[in-house]
Amino acid sequence: MQLFSFKRNIGLLMFCDRPEKFIPQTYIELVRFHSIEAEGSDEFTARDFKGPIHKQIRDAMNYLDTTVFDRKTVKISGQMESETCFNYPYDALEEVLVNAVFHKSYRDPDPVEIRVYVDCIMVLNYPGPAKWIDMKQFAKGKVRSRKYRNRRIGEFFREIDLSEKKSTGITKILNALGDNGSPPPEFETDDERNYFIATIYIHKAFEANEPVNEPVNEPVNDIVNRHDVILHALRENKYYSKKQLVGITGISYATIKREIKIMKDNGIIKRVGPDKTGYWEIVDS
């Protein structure tokens, strides 16, 4: 397919409801793996985010915010104050995604990819950084370049507060991760700079089977057992999903998942039917 002029492409990317009809693969593709086997498992969720490129970013971030991002408050030994951390800081992932959409080549028919694993999130775009960029300095946030692949996109993003267009994106990512106590990111490309992968790792407090300080009780009275709160909600409506239980009980999604598993393992409740159309049966009432 022959692409339109550069100026018209910019208009399509920013204001067209379906830019992928004119510029191939102009969307964000997300795959979320639900088990540690990742690509070796059938347990995954996939969806595409389409529309103007700024809407793609905001829709993808909203999806991550409501289904993936979580926070935890922990007591620190020897310290009166508790601390709150996030499995993935929103600002870091937003900056990674903005950079991927900003620096993608719209001449190459490959979408921006988000791959959510149980312990990290990868964002992939094509191609990679220019060859004259020192990747070791890049990983430290020391980017001196003022030459942009898609300058007009950067100007547009700046107008809507998605990008500062001052080569500060990597520094913002590093700062957001550092403030959250998260591991440093990993940036990967090949010698030919055909692709670029930014990987954000999960906070240690959310790692599977990782011993951490006991979470502070969330919005549930200290003297009330969380199981009782969940059971009370399920007695009112056995069709509540885990997400709906979050809103009903005020307990975080991560805690709901953990307590539901404990209750199922102990024979207190069981799931009848598939996840989407089934219901909860209280065994020990």
Q: Would you write up a description of this structure?
A:
By secondary structure, the chain is an alpha+beta fold. The chain has 2 domains: 6-206, Heat Shock Protein 90 (2-Layer Sandwich); 226-282, Orthogonal Bundle (Arc Repressor Mutant, subunit A), CATH 1.10.10. It has 9 helices and 10 strands. Strand 7 (186-188) and strand 8 (196-201) form a beta hairpin.
Overview in brief:
The protein has 285 residues and is of the alpha+beta class.
Order of helices and strands: HEEHEEHEEHHHEEHHHEE
Could you estimate the helical fraction of the residues in percent?
25-40%
Strand order of the largest sheet: 2-1-5-6-8-7
Our count of helices gives: 9
Strand content: 15-25%
**Structure summary, number of beta strands:** 10
Low-confidence stretches: 1-7, 209-224
The outline comes out as globular
What is the alpha-carbon Rg in Å?
A: 22 Å
Q: What oligomeric assembly is this protein in?
A: single chain
Overall average pLDDT? 80
